[in-house]
Design goal:
Blueprint (H helix, E strand, L loop, with lengths): L1 H12 L4 H27 L10 H24 L4 H12 L7 H8 L5 H28 L5 H9 L2 H11 L7 H12 L1 H12 L2 H6 L1 H26 L5 H10 L5 H9 L6 H26 L1
């Protein structure tokens, strides 16, 4: 946990180098998206258990987005928010950082083998949600026309989708040792690269400017929704099962980096998004150990 925080601090400290600050996040995010994350997916997909239980981690991100949409669409109407602010808030509160932060934190608290369950949450739920209804919401609230052909193309040719499909094709064969070693090494770089990129974009001055929005989004995402999922699990499931543990752990992840990027690209309150994402990441370093302890002892 200390090491993960150190990567974030490192990114913040090297902001003084102007070239690194302006170009670093772009290239680091590309590396994570096109290399590190697909490597993990290609390596771990074969370990995903196929059962009706797999629907649980897939459904969690969908429920998160649905509740976010109805909650903040209503609040936006009530308080006369701009379309951009409403759309950005829905995206940020409704999509969790289940891969860039989720995987490194799962590895830290639960161990390497549990990342398989994280993949079920991320690929089965979060990725499909952000790539479909997430893009639709961004288009609608930006005033653009919805192009389903473009959305479908983005989903099918997204790097993680390609890695997932390749893993399914190769599921019957054992990977050569060199392939496993390379994928394992590249996957291990996901946490450092993502956190350094986020550190490079942190601005405490701008965070203070959006403190009301940050509090409302993080309260919904990291407290309200996470506790609702825990209540549902206590009533219907075995909280101590590995699949439920990771689903609940991922439920408390802060706003998704990709959701913030989409909000910026579509002009939805572009200055707010990176500050909400950055604040959530700072908060998770305090809340993750507490949430982990609660889930293991309840």
């Amino acid at each position: 946990m200390t090491l993960l925080f150190a990567y974030l601090v490192l990114g913040y400290l090297i902001q003084r180098f102007s070239f690194v600050k302006t170009q670093g996040p772009f290239y680091l995010n590309k590396f994570v998206l096109y290399v590190s994350l697909p490597a993990i997916i290609f390596l771990k997909t074969r370990d995903i258990p196929i059962s009706t239980e797999a629907l649980i981690p897939i459904f969690m991100p969908v429920l998160n987005f649905a509740l976010s949409f109805f909650t903040f669409y209503f609040l936006g109407k009530k308080y006369n928010w701009s379309r951009g602010k409403t759309g950005a808030t829905i995206l940020l509160a409704g999509l969790g950082n289940t891969s860039f932060l989720g995987f490194p934190l799962i590895r830290h608290f639960y161990g390497e083998d549990y990342i398989t369950y994280g993949l079920m949450v991320d690929q089965g739920g979060s990725f499909i949600t952000v790539s479909t209804v997430g893009l639709i919401v961004a288009s609608v609230f930006s005033g653009n026309r919805i192009n389903f052909k473009t959305i479908t193309k983005k989903v099918l040719f997204f790097p993680t989708t390609i890695a997932f499909v390749l893993a399914l094709i190769c599921i019957r064969w054992d990977y050569p040792q060199v392939v496993e070693s390379i994928c394992s090494y590249l996957g291990a770089l996901l946490g450092p690269a993502a956190l350094i990129a986020i550190g490079l974009q942190l601005s405490f001055t701008q965070i203070r400017s959006y403190k009301k929005e940050i509090v409302s989004i993080l309260s919904f995402k990291m407290f309200g929704f996470a506790l609702l999922c825990l209540l549902i699990a206590l009533i219907f499931f075995d909280v101590q099962s590995p699949l439920i543990q990771i689903t609940l752990f991922e439920a408390m992840m802060p706003p998704m980096i990709t959701a913030g990027i989409i909000a910026q690209e579509y002009g939805l309150e572009p200055e707010m998004s990176p500050n909400v994402v950055g604040s959530g990441i700072l908060a998770i370093f305090i809340l993750a150990p507490i949430w982990f302890w609660l889930l293991k002892t309840i």
